[in-house]
Amino acid sequence: MTAKFTIKGITDATDTCECCGTRIKRAVALMPLDVDGNEFGEVTFYGTTCAGKALGRKTAWITNQATAAQREREAEVERAREWLAAYGPVEFGSTSEKRRVFCTERGNTLREGESVSRVVAGLLATARLTLAAAY
Fold this sequence. Notes:
Blueprint: E1 5-11, E2 27-32, E3 44-46, H1 48-55, H2 59-87, H3 95-105, H4 116-132
Antiparallel strand pairs: 1-2, 2-3
């Protein structure tokens, strides 16, 4: 059975391919997938050639996908930092403070039945998880 992965990005944080041990300029961050297609385990770092073999794709495709995934990850990190900067100062504040920041300053609207405190707590939790998910 062929190992299945999803591409998480590209990095120069390591100089060794975990598949073959070769020295590499950049590594493709691959997350293993279980038989149902869910992420499990830890990210592995392969050179583009080994990543191509693992995914059954050409090196150019791997590089393009890894670069796109990296851009997406960087955008998620930037959004997480924005959320922490905006909502962190009012995390333990009153409901009216949270509403002022969420609705007035940031231009968001609550859906029917939503609590501003829960929404802000959820955004902060998501932001922290995003920043903690390092590879």
